[in-house]
Design a protein that fits this description.
Elements lengths: L1 E3 L2 E3 L5 H12 L3 H13 L6 E5 L4 H12 L3 E5 L8 H9 L5 E2 L6 H12 L5 E4 L3 H9 L9 E4 L2 H12 L7 E3 L4 H24 L7 E5 L3 H12 L3 E5 L3 H9 L3 E2 L2 H7 L2 E4 L9 H6 L4 E5 L9 H7 E8 L2 E6 L4 E5 L5 H4 L6 H20 L8 E3 L2 H14 L9 H7 L8
This protein binds nicotinamide-adenine-dinucleotide.
């Protein structure tokens, strides 16, 4: 362990290896590189204290260095006890001079100690992935509220929590829902979660997916991506949903739709991505096939009712690093991956840098927006301004060397008028 009041990380000697991986990821993050160059000259975040609670990955390291280049005084802690890449944490502290409080596998108690350590930095902007900083500030660090310019939120579950706070009138500073930017969830939640969830499941189990029955619970942005990639592996994909529109969409995308009770009887894999609680419950486990693999890609580890599984089990063993195999009284085995935490981060490396480039470009530009628009925003959850979304999309297209057409003057006029009709 390496700890002082500026950091708490696992092993400083991992810094060299961590930096090499951060640089590797940076090559796939052209939008952040462009923003770094531009904002390094303008320094719009000069001296602003930012506390960020994000997954400590190579991509987050590149976000932090970009914020620092723009002038910010950034500190980081983890947004999940199992997602920290300890080599990245070491590199941030010892190579990039950015304080980090995060150790992979930390207890819940240490997790909250780390949250409070980054709040001791007295942030004026928070960056959350799951709303834990905002929640902690409102619950026990009220004195910070007066100085806050605002917060940003990276994920669907965090936005849901924050909207619930705003609806109760409890939110005491503005927060911007970065998750809801098109250039975030259309790509990160769909393609990022899609690829990395399959990556996590495959790394954890090394079981062939072709020909297997693979159920995705929830056909939101993440579920769509997971289903698409599982289908690509040759799995027979079933979708379970509670929303009629999304069920219909899944049906027309070519998947089988049925209640989870029915899917549970035939599935080799069941993967949750709902942001909801106990969607896989004891009744489903009662009817699962021997060997069924359960994994979660939703934000919190409550989507699978793990306490119920533990109570049902007569035996438990860990045959592989990210697999807990529970044996039930009738001899059936249920295999839980990554302790029910985000499988793509706990058993793989999280989203590929290419998509995080866009998500984190939104974070950077949103922080600049919060910094420039001081005290004018209401204390509620705001959307990312549309011009930021457009800017991120344009920068990404340019980096991909993709050109698109422009509206002519005639077309612009036509699209903004009502006089012309049937001819
Ligand atoms: N693993 C990652 O890296 C990652 C990345 C982005 C988002 N997330 C998280 O994944 C979760 C889903 O995010 P999203 O953007 O796809 O959300 P979303 O709102 O687009 O989709 C969630 C879907 O789950 C469905 N659902 C809710 N309860 C259900 C139930 N009991 N049974 C079946 N379906 C149910 C909803 O109807 C909805 O269609 C959130 O917790 C989000 O924070 C994880």
């Amino acid at each position: 362990m390496s700890a002082n009041n500026n950091h708490d990380i696992k092993d400083a000697s991992l810094a060299e290896a961590g930096l090499a991986r951060i640089e590797w990821a940076y090559q796939e993050m052209p939008v952040l590189r462009v923003l770094g160059e531009r904002l390094g000259k303008q320094r719009p975040l000069d001296g602003l204290r930012i506390s960020a609670c994000l997954h400590i990955t190579t991509e987050t390291a590149n976000l932090a260095r970009t914020l620092k280049t723009a002038g910010a005084d950034v500190v980081l802690c983890a947004s999940n006890p199992l997602s920290t890449q300890d080599d990245v944490a070491a590199a941030l502290v010892h190579k990039l001079d950015i304080p980090v409080f995060a150790i992979r596998g930390e207890s819940t108690e240490v997790y909250y100690q780390h949250i409070n350590a980054v709040l001791d930095h007295l942030p004026v902007i928070t960056m959350d992935d799951g709303a834990d900083l905002v929640s902690e500030i409102h619950k026990s660090r009220n004195t910070l509220i007066g100085k806050m310019l605002g917060g940003t939120e990276e994920t669907t579950t965090g936005v849901i929590r924050l909207r619930a706070m705003a609806a109760e009138g409890a939110l005491r500073f503005p927060v911007i829902a970065v998750n809801d930017a098109m250039t975030k969830h259309l790509f990160d939640n769909r393609y990022g979660t899609g690829q990395s969830t399959l990556d996590g499941i495959i790394r954890a189990t090394n079981i062939l997916l072709a020909g297997k029955t693979f159920t995705v619970v929830g056909y939101g942005w993440c579920g769509r991506g997971i289903a698409m990639r599982a289908k690509g592996h040759g799995a027979k994909v079933i979708i379970t949903e509670v929303d009629p529109l999304r069920s219909l969409e899944a049906a027309m995308d070519g998947y089988r739709i049925m209640p989870l009770m029915e899917a549970a009887r035939q599935s080799d894999f069941i993967v949750t991505a709902t942001g909801d609680k106990h969607v896989v419950d004891q009744a489903h486990m009662d009817v699962m096939k021997d060997g069924c693999v359960l994994a979660n890609s939703g934000h919190f580890n409550v989507e699978i009712n793990i306490p119920a599984l533990e109570a049902m089990a007569v035996g438990q063993q860990r045959p592989r690093a990210s697999v807990d195999e529970y044996t039930l009284e009738d001899g059936r085995r249920i295999r839980l991956l990554a302790e029910g935490r985000l499988v793509n981060l706990a058993a793989a490396e999280g989203h590929p840098s290419t998509v995080m480039d866009m998500s984190f470009a939104n974070q950077v530009l949103t922080a600049v927006y919060l910094a420039s628009d001081q005290y004018k925003l209401e204390n509620t959850v705001h959307n990312v301004p549309a011009d930021i979304d457009q800017q991120v999309a344009s920068l990404k297209l340019a980096a991909m060397n993709i050109q698109i057409d422009q509206l002519t003057d005639e077309q612009q006029h036509y699209l903004s008028s009502w006089q012309e009709g049937t001819e």
